[in-house]
Design a protein that fits this description.
InterPro entries: Low_temperature_requirement_A. Keywords: Membrane, Transmembrane, Transmembrane helix. The protein has helices at about 1-5, 10, 65, 110-130, 135-160, 165-185, 200-220, 225-250, 250-275, 285-310, 320-340, 345-355, 355-370, 370-395, 405-430, 435-455, 455-470. Helices cover about 65% and strands about 0% of the residues. The relative contact order is 0.08. It folds into two domains: about 110-280, no CATH class; about 285-480. It is built from 17 helices and no strands.
């Protein structure tokens, strides 16, 4: 008390209601504000500081407490990414551990770039199966699709755990993108050994690179419990590389069976150990997870049919070819509407309502697993559409020659697979499936004999007319309505 009588300014400088905190005699009271949406401290702006802040020179300036964060005077702190953990202050940014749990509710441009490279790889599967299409090539194409799909899905789970566009992680994700790109380039030679480097071995090494980078990043940003799951999954993942590399060296049917074994080993480790015993991968942002899958499906719908139509060239000016291309566009729009207007909102609602391990399971079942038939259906339908264009372009008759069995099965069977995949997503979301829903999905298979008996232009026209009817069919269930706040991919 004697000290306070001698120095009354000490009492005046104490903040009201916050004992022990002393402010500078000339400092203003700090504005109250909330942290930014992801909860990051460094680089966040005070929401209370809007345009024309009193005493500030620039409009929209951050609060004074944010201008000079702790460690600002230390070397390298000016380059420190805003979304790294506070333990990174004072270190070089490339040596800092990124903070876990920073998944955004929306997809970043860098992730869209990553998905574009992935979809380009999928379009190369169409090129692999279409020279010319036959049952063996179509089966091997499905095997390649499943391997690449689950490799991409791992990076989506990583993006849900932390941001992948900060410099330390972005560099390694770019390495993974290079792996996808190399795999896309050698995809048509996945079972052929030609001049130069070995195509199957390059494809296998690209896949190993994708998986190794994913495991390293996931373990780096993960929490202790998550790291335990990653280490157990890594055992199965590394074991699957052995048949993958051996099959690439042997080639032929040995390569087919060994690569199928590699897929079974890795998927068994993920579904059997991580999902069933350890509670699955943690899903933190259902909005981000659903939107990312929706964007990839939309990109696949557009890019696959675009790649199929590139081979037409100058022949597109012919009326039959142009008609087939327009019908193919209507077919794409119908497939988009059937899923995104009716089924996608249901899946998003189920994922948003779930909590804990149930949310993890819905994410793994509805999206990581349930969306695979949708993508496979798009790839096969694009392969059939490519066969239609080739038939209409080469034939002398206006409608083109009739489709062969591989082309007809790809076109009609791919559409049926897409519809069945949409039903699977609805069923795994907890909405159930009726017999009439299943019957609607298998109708394209019943139309296949008719499609093979008519010219190719009439075959795709018949299938498109059926899909348009499904797309414009009135909804009878309120479950198909778009929920409030639905993602932009459902618009």
């Amino acid at each position: 008390m004697e000290r306070l009588r001698q120095h009354p300014g000490l009492l005046r400088d104490r903040l009201p209601g916050r004992p022990g905190q002393v402010r500078h005699p000339h400092a203003r009271p700090a504005r109250r504000g909330r942290p930014d949406r992801a909860g990051e401290g460094l680089g966040a702006q005070d929401r209370g500081a809007g345009p024309g802040c009193a005493g500030d020179l620039l409009p929209g300036c951050p609060a004074r407490s944010q201008r000079h964060p702790p460690g600002a005077g230390q070397p390298g702190s000016a380059r420190l990414p805003a979304r790294l953990s506070r333990t990174a202050v004072g270190r070089r940014w490339w040596a800092a551990r990124p903070a876990a749990g920073r998944g955004l509710p929306t997809v970043t441009p860098f992730e869209i770039f990553f998905d574009l490279v992935f979809v380009f790889t999928l379009t190369r599967i169409v090129a692999f199966m279409g020279k010319p299409p036959d049952p063996v090539a179509m089966g091997r194409g499905l095997l390649l699709l499943t391997l690449l799909w689950f490799a991409w899905s791992g990076y989506l789970w990583l993006g849900n755990q932390t941001r992948v566009d900060v410099p330390p992680i972005r560099l390694l994700v770019l390495v993974a993108m290079a792996g996808f790109f190399v795999a896309a380039l050698v995809m048509p030679s996945a079972w052929d050994v030609g001049p130069g480097l070995d195509g199957p071995l390059l494809l296998a090494l690209s896949y190993v690179l994708l998986r190794a980078v994913h495991l390293a990043l996931y373990h780096w940003v993960g929490e202790p419990v998550l790291r335990l799951r990653i280490r157990r999954f890594a055992v199965a993942s590394v074991l699957s590389w052995v048949p993958l590399l051996v099959g690439a060296v042997l080639g032929g049917w040995a390569q087919t069976w060994l690569w199928a074994l590699a897929f079974v080993v890795e998927t068994g480790g993920q579904r059997g150990v991580v999902q069933n015993r350890l509670g699955g991968w943690p899903l933190r942002s259902p909005e981000y997870f659903a939107e990312r899958h929706g964007l990839v499906l939309i990109i696949a719908l557009g890019e696959s049919f675009l790649a199929a139509g590139v081979g037409v060239g100058v022949m597109v000016t012919r009326i039959p070819v142009l008609t087939a291309a327009v019908i193919g566009f209507v077919l794409i729009a119908s497939l988009w509407s059937i899923h995104f207007d009716r089924v996608s909102p249901v899946a998003q609602q189920a994922l948003a309502r779930a909590r804990g391990e149930r949310r993890n399971r819905i994410g793994a079942d509805v999206y990581s697993l349930g969306h695979l038939p949708l993508i496979a259906g798009v790839i096969y339908t694009a392969l059939g559409f490519e066969d239609v264009l080739a038939s209409v372009t080469a034939a002398e008759s206006p409608g083109g020659a009739a489709l062969g069995w591989p082309g007809g099965v790809a076109l009609y069977g791919g559409t049926a697979l897409y519809l069945l995949g949409s039903l699977l997503v609805r069923y795994l979301s907890g909405c159930g499936t009726r017999v009439n829903h299943l019957a609607v999905a298998v109708v394209p298979l019943l139309l296949l004999p008719v499609g093979r008996a008519v010219p190719a232009l009439a075959a795709i026209g018949l299938l498109t007319a059926y899909l348009v009817g499904l797309a414009v069919l009135p909804r009878r269930s309120p479950a198909g309505r778009r929920p409030a706040g639905a993602s932009a991919t459902d618009r």
